[in-house]
Queue: 2 jobs
Job 1
Amino acid sequence: MLERIITALVLVAVVLSCMFATTSQYPMLVLMIIAAGAAGYEWFKLMPHDSAHVSKVKATGFGLLTALLSGLALYFSDLALLLWSASILTWLFSIYWVKSFPEYDGWYNPALKIIGLVLISAAVTAIFVVWKSSPWWLMYLFLLVWGADSGAYFVGRKLGKRKLAPHVSPNKSIEGLAGGIFTVAIVIIAVQSIYLNLTFTQHILFLILSIVTVFSSVLGDLFESMIKRRAGIKDSGRILPGHGGVLDRIDSLLAAAPIFAAGMYVLKLFGVDL
């Protein structure tokens, strides 16, 4: 437990420093590229392979490729928008994959490597773009994801009876999901009431975006759990003592970040300046 707490404190300190300690974009940029590379390395290990031994050289190469694509998307905004669109489309398909598991696992094939490239690159570029808009909007995104996860965990432990996706993640419950939604509802209401000066219609649109982001974070968590279960692996990696791998920490953000960033972009097109 002590190891887990220390790791969490170090992670929080690093992320918050990159977010708030400087107006320079380079610390956040470097952090995103490193995260993309590490996540890509771990993703490759979860993919189907011809042999039981996974080549570390190939996994490293895939991680570097993921970092390169993320770097290009961070530089070329049109590429980032394309990745977000492809990511959101993939997440829509994943609803069926999660719902049908384990009866259907046709998604577990070599094409999953391409999907990983898209999902990871889309997520890190989305996080960076939200941060550039305002570090506080990125903090809001984190609060939505962490609030939903924490609320679901504590409520699920006490009241959880009906399983949300028993074949994918047996510990998650419908009651826990409701607890997570209630928790983030407090955050959403507080932010909209105190900080946003919007019309009634704009408030509704922002509320819809926030709720969709929360549900997508749950989907991201379930999807990574499903891949690990299919691959027969408990944790995506061991780089974070007490926490597993990078993918284990950002699985919810893989889905939530592109959806929130794309939603902010669409809202601006409708005149909602956040």
Job 2
Amino acid sequence: MSASVPGPRRAPARGKRAFAATWWGQAWVTALEDSTLDAGRLSRGRTYARKGMVGPTTVAPGRIKAAVQGSRPRPYRSSVHLPVLTDTQWGTLLDAIAARAGHLAALLDDEMPAGLVDDARRAGVPLLPQPTELDPDCSCPDWGYPCKHAAALCYAIAATVDADPFVLFALRGRGREEVLAELRARRTPKQGTPTPPAPTGVPATAAYTRWAEHAPQLPGPRAPATHAAALPVAPPSGTGLSTTDLERLMSDTAARAARLLAGHTADLHLTQHQDAVRIAASGPGPDWFHRLIQNTGIKPTEFARLTRAWRNGGPTGLTVAEQPLTPDPAVMTAARTALTAALAEMTPAPARLRAWRNRLTLTDHGIQLRLGPDACWYPCIREDDGEWWSAAPADADPVAAVTAVWRKTGA
């Protein structure tokens, strides 16, 4: 078994690394250079390889050979020998490749996986050449070991090893097709081999029910620590902040941290003006309320409207107050049907019900329901300024949401 490989093209750059771009190709070059201390002959060998003086290369088990042009008209016959693997070593190497699908996939992509080389080395199988394994030979009269012609052959073959890692397998005794056939045989189940039955497992519902019946009692969360201690220093002058301001912010931060520990993360993604609305909804007093309005630049009436929306619905209530949503049409149709039936009993006059996006509006009664992203209905009433203001906490039932504000409007 042997294969003829065209003579490698000239190296594109100077330097030792010019002959190999991959790590396994560089390992081949390193093995060559570590096999001798004769830097001068290695340098001449690199020059010969760069000038394209190495002819077509033949790769056979345990040997590569080629004609290398020297200073004389007739080229020299150069070769480099490498020990082949024993059958036992081949069995170990092929088992290591077959054990991991990634090894085979990389080889088929002309890549030498580093993990494969490591697995083989740990099993005592040298796939990459060791410096003591390379045995050069040449018909030239040079006594160097290696001579410059054999060195040129080793440098030139590095590009071939780069492009096709199966060259290393061929040098160790088996070519690409033979290796792939052995791997296919290892990964194909033998005829007559019984297939182990798949585990039956336990349905997820039953498993959860079983766990819930015997679930250990977990301790409840501890009450958040209070932070009523006075600040150790006064706020810097010129900031406009008082000690009371900073203590209030400190208490607010502690309360938010406690909510986060409890799993309430809705406050994490608030914008600056939304966070100002959140603080205002906690009732900090008129001074803070006015300063929050000034710092956000929102009109006082609009800021008050958003503050009420937060008080009744938190972050989701604020979202519902600020922007319309596009809901599931089926949900809107079902809610409209339920409201029409309920209104027929609540008022003798026909109630006009207008739908737009996520909003159902009783135009004659100043009531509007807004469907939130949490599938709850947020009731609003039209105030004297013509804007819709949050009027009560949300409810999953649209009829209950309307009932909560029905009397407030005098309907």
